[in-house]
Amino acid sequence: MGYVPDPALNALRVYRKELKPSQDRSTIAVIENWPRKGLTEWNGPSKIVFKGAIARAEKLGYKVEPFWMREFKSHRKASDALYSRGVKGLILESLPQGLGHLCLQWERFCTVSYSYDFVLPRFHRLAFDDFGHMIDLRRKLAQRGYKRPGFVLNKRNERASRYCSLAANVFWESRHKLVRKPIPILMVSDTKEIAQDLVTWFRTFRPDVIVGHNSAIFHVLLDQGIRIPEEVAFVSREVLETETSLTGFKANHRNIGAVAINLLHAMIARGEYGIPEVPQTILISNDWNEGTTAPQRNDHRC
């Protein structure tokens, strides 16, 4: 009939919904497929993402609930359970193995993921800008006078993020003249079992700053009697909200949850159910947290 949507009316509708959310709330489920139930309760980053999603969903009239896949004997039964509970949107959590897939009846739901873990099918994805963050990190370390950074990276995380951090390191080192050969990157699987390897690596190569994938590396170093920042500085690539004393990038997990809800809200309004023809990736920036574990070096010259 020649109808053309009016952007101003759509904006008004969204504004009114935020002012007075509907009491008949649709459900958005956070899909967990880990062996242990309650990922949004015992995993620090997942807990913050979940809180961010809930806060934003309440303003838009949705409720958010965790959904543990392993309670069901098949993916079809899980799909039926989700549909019967009135779930319209899905947020896919990370997978324990790092890369994999699920076989839900996707045509029933609007779906987003917030990691690179899901190989097939491909959905709209939210992810941290790991490549950009590593370039920014190398620049900050150089500006602070650190010349021998040592990196401790998680094998699973690097594989799931398509080795963006490693690629950024290679790019940085190819563009800058290094005084000495770069310190070999220490790739780890389980933080709890790396104490001896970490200490041996540190004593062998003597970095002036250690960059860890999260604060677990920091605590292992302290437990082994290594003084920070007196003996070596430390930077975390994932500073949580409660870790204000650590220097590094403050991971915006709460923002990941909020943006996921915004994206699902728009998809539900447009009726974009199922697997998208052209999946999009939204990169989320992290903020720098000054902390106290990587101060400016006295011998730095601008």
Rounded to the nearest angstrom, the distance between the terminal CA atoms is 67 Å
Mean pLDDT: 89
Low-confidence stretches: none
CATH class of the largest domain: Alpha Beta
Largest sheet at a glance? 6 strands, parallel
Radius of gyration: 22 Å
Compute the number of structural domains. Answer: 2
Q: Rough shape?
A: elongated
**How much of the polypeptide forms β-strand, as a percent range?**
15-25%
The CATH homologous superfamily of the largest domain is named Response regulator
- CATH overall fold name of the largest domain: Rossmann fold
Estimated structural class: alpha/beta
Going across the biggest sheet, name each strand in turn. Answer: 2-1-3-5-7-13
Order of helices and strands: HEHHEHEEEEEHEHHEHEHEEHEE
How many strands? 14
Q: What is this entry, summarized?
A:
With 302 residues, this protein is an alpha/beta fold. Helix content is 38%, strand content 21%.
Please characterize this protein's 3D structure.
The chain has 302 residues and is of the alpha/beta class. It has two domains: 156 residues, 3-Layer(aba) Sandwich (Rossmann fold), CATH 3.40.50; 121 residues, 3-Layer(aba) Sandwich (Rossmann fold). The protein contains ten helices and 14 strands. The strands form three sheets. The protein has a six-stranded parallel sheet with strand order 2-1-3-5-7-13, with helices on both faces. Strand 10, helix 9 and strand 11 form a beta-alpha-beta unit. Helix 3 crosses helix 10 and helix 5 packs across helix 7. The longest helix is centred in the last third of the chain and has 18 residues. The protein is elongated and about 65 Å long. It starts with 6 loop residues before the first helix and ends in a 13-residue tail after the last strand.
